[in-house]
Amino acid sequence: MPARFTALAAPEAVVAALAGQGYIADRGLGTAVFLAARLGKPLLVEGPAGVGKTELARALAGWSDLPLLRLQCYEGLDEGKSLYEWQYGKQLLYTQILKDHVNAALGGAAGGLDGAMTRLHAVGERFYAAEFLAPRPLLQALQAPAGAVLLIDEIDKADPEFEAFLLEMLADFQVSIPELGRIAARVRPFVVLTSNAARDLGDALKRRCLHLHIGFPDAALEGRIVAARAPEAGPALRAALVAFVQGLRNLDLRKLPSVSETIDWARALVLLHTTVLGPETVRETLNVLLKYEVDVETAARALGGLMEEARRAAAIAG
Amino acid sequence: MPPPSPAEPPPPDDAAAPLLGFIRAARGAGVRISPAETQDALRAASLLGYGDRALLGAALGATLAKTTEEKARLAACFARYFAAPEAAPAPEAAPAAAAQAPADAETGLAGMLLAGDGASLAAGLAEAGQAVGLAGISVFTQVNLYARRMLEAMGLGALEARIAALRAEGAEERADRLGEGLGRLRAAARAAAERALDLYARPENARLRDAALAEARIASLSPRDRARLRGVLRAMARKLATRHARPRRHPRRGRLDARRTLRRNLAWGGVLFQTVWRRRRIERPRIVVLCDVSGSVASVAEFLLSFLHALSEVLADLRAFAFCSSLSEVTDLLRRHAPETAGAAVLREVGLGASNYGTALEDFERAYMATLDRRTSVIILGDARSNRADPRVDILARIAARAKRVVWLNPEMRPAWGTGDSEIHRYAPHCAVLRPCASLKALEAAVADLLAAEAG
Fold it and tell me: What distance in Å separates the CA atoms of residue A6 and residue A34, rounded to the nearest whole number?
């Protein structure tokens, strides 16, 4: 584990560190990251899309000043794409060069076939040398000289086989390449796995990780997040739009607006020079928050009540 | 697991004891916790200390609970386990009482009761609870037994003797006060035993109850049991989904895909570096389900729909139709609701009424026949009681000819088939599978068979 992570003193230090990167977190999140750092365990983050799971890894990498290595999972992802691959093209060139030099290297026909074979073995195995290896994110994370933040994104999209393969690597932070031998991590990376719960992950993987669920934030936290990510929005507008989104989440929608959508909306409103949230503006910009036509219609029907809440929040904040 | 650094020694045993007790209780509440996770929790607690409850709760949540559901259970269990101890059984106006009768006049339990020493009494109760193995409580009827044993461990015998002696001496007022104190103590002991039952005995009771529920006829269950059954259904569906969530493509080693091999190796001038093997695609089942939602079958239909909905991740395509006399598609309705409530939502929309299989099948043939192909399995759930109307067996025959197969699930028991207006025997020749299906267990078996047959 990189030194900056092991030196964390308390959950509050994590919250402060993340705040420095513009990532506003609550104490529960701080505790989970703190424990992951101090216990040396991977952190499995679950929650709805757009609440900042991936962003968490990015903020941690920014704070610790380490490279962020991201492995996006999908169905059919295998070792070749996640760990390493041999560069066949280079190897092919090598064999062709070898063809030109092989006679010289083996010293002509001296000693007959047996002699040539003996000398061939003495030349050494270069075909599978480290130079021909193309490291993929997992191997890169192990080889990073000062450690790294490894983000394994949407692990639920990968096949169960890949998950099993990952277990080995997350347990010992080392991999074996048959032709080269074992490669162990120079500095253990800080690992973040994210999942949207498209399928249930295996118990074995869950056991090895600390678990963090990021849900939709409450109004206070969401207000702070918007203040950090879209500071141009004034306090009254901020309070109004957060109250509106919070109300929206109570409706029966196909896809609830997430934090990322709140931030997008705040930025959009700022671009439109909005200072007071009015029903016209809301109706025109609702498609930033809602991604289904049905949802937009549902929200339009409930607009009166939602606007009322937003006005009240703005009055308190203003 | 990385070795703990020397700065973080394992916590001393006495500090770990309440945590281990909590982990026991959490297991009882249905959170699966392995020894490795227990170790993590202990190390986390020693890192963060026990002082801050919210912090400790968050730490235990991160180390022990690995799903959202488990997190909620763990939080509830945490609140119950670390709840403030029951209000101490102190007599009212305790200071005055203590002043009237100096505590040194009585000793032991009687002294504590008279002096209104709530803290000592609570501590005594907790100690007694440990002494009699309160954590072993498993059924409700043991509450009184354990409460009495706890009181005995605290010195009930001596106290009763003392009260009797006081009465004999004529100190009625003092005896009455002791008696009142004893009454309160009894209530506190009972409460402690009930709390222990709540904490430790949940799992066994719940398991027994769930098993019985799964076997029972759905139609005859009370609304409260039905609500519970939804939880059971969810667990069952998850189990099935995990079992059948296999990779959809299997490499078939041994058969070279010559065309793709040549293509892949073009980059290296046709030198065969990489071989490509033929793969076999495994089809996920496509299911069309027709549910009778008339009064007689509605309760089972609700569960079948919820079940299939919960399995949607292992199904390529699920289209659901519900009918009484006319048929309508409810696929979208299902999609918008959580598995537990989906079935009920369909019933609300399509409603109960008298069933007419003939018109329902006509509706289906007219509008949806095109959705069927050789890969689709058709599930029909119904009692085939068509209220004397024409059953239109010919349409079912055409459906069977078009689709992969027709599975008929009948919530009635076999002896009732063919009696009265039941047309099940006329439909039977066109069904590949025909089985009774009255309990959740039977439903699970039917769906499991279906998935297995698709994979084969």
Answer: 9
The answer to whether residue B121 neighbours chain A at the CB level (below 8 Å) is no
Residue B101: predicted pLDDT: 43
State the DSSP H helix or E strand holding residue B111, giving kind and residue range, or none if neither.
helix B108-115
CATH number for the domain including A32? Answer: 3.40.50.300
Residue in B with minimal Cα distance to A197: B67
- A102 and A230 co-located in one domain: no
CATH number of the domain at B286-455, please?
A: 3.40.50.410
**A41, closest residue in chain B (CA to CA):** B1
- Domain co-membership, A106 together with A162: no
* A91 and A203 co-located in one domain: no
Assess contact for B290 and B380: CB atoms under 8 A: yes
Test A211 with B32 for CB contact under 8 angstroms: no
- Contacts across the A-B interface (CB distance below 8 Å): 90
Q: Facing residues of B277 across strands?
A: B256
The answer to whether A11 contacts B55, with C-beta atoms less than 8 Å apart, is: yes
Q: Judge whether A47 lies within some domain.
A: yes
Provide the pLDDT confidence category of residue B102 given band limits of 50, 70 and 90.
very low
Residues A210, B63: C-beta atoms closer than 8 Å: yes
A46 vs B contacts (CB less than 8 Å): 67-68
* CA distance to partner chain B, nearest, from residue A109 (Å): 27
Q: Do B55 and A209 touch (CB under 8 A)?
A: no
Residue B97: predicted pLDDT: 40
> In B, residues 59-88, which contact A (CB 8 Å cutoff)?
59, 61-63, 65-68, 71
pLDDT of residue B209: 74
One domain, residues A261 and A299: yes
pTM of the model: 0.65
CA atoms within 13 A on the CB side of B127: 10
User: Do A59 and A154 fall into the same domain?
Assistant: yes
pLDDT at A59 over 60: yes
Backbone angles phi, psi at A173, to 5 degrees: 50, 45
- Region of A77 (left: φ > 0; alpha: ψ -120 to 50; beta: rest) is beta
Which residue of chain A has the CA closest to B249? A76
User: For residue A242, which of A265, A214, A272, A274 has the smallest C-alpha distance?
Assistant: A265
pLDDT of residue B327: 86
Which chain A residue shows the shortest CA-CA distance from B266?
Answer: A89
pLDDT over 80 at A285, yes or no: yes
Rg (CA), chain B: 33
Residue B142 DSSP label = G
Mutate to test the interface with A, among B43, B67, B341 (most CBs of A within 10 A): B67
Cβ separation of B5 and A252 shorter than 8 Å? no
Distance (Å) from the alpha carbon of A188 to chain B's nearest alpha carbon: 10
For every residue of B35-60, DSSP letters joined together read HHHHHHHHHHHHHH-SS-HHHHHHHH
A46 touches B at CB < 8 Å: yes
The predicted pLDDT at position B91 comes to: 43
- Of A33-37, A133-137, A141-145, which has the strongest mean pLDDT? A33-37
Tokens of B313: 């991740």
Give the domain extent around A204. Answer: 3-73+148-170+189-213
Residue A190 has a CB neighbour count (10 Å cut-off) of: 28
Q: Using alpha carbons only, what angle is made at residue B21 by residues B15 and B24, rounded to the nearest 5 degrees? A: 145
- Please say if the pLDDT value at position B100 is more than 60: no
Mean pLDDT, chain B, as a whole number?
78
> Is A141 among the domain residues?
no
* Nearest residue to B440 (alpha-carbon basis) of B204, B208, B286, B210: B210
Contact of A44 with chain B, judged by CB distance below 8 Å, is answered with yes
* Both tokens assigned to A87: 């560069």
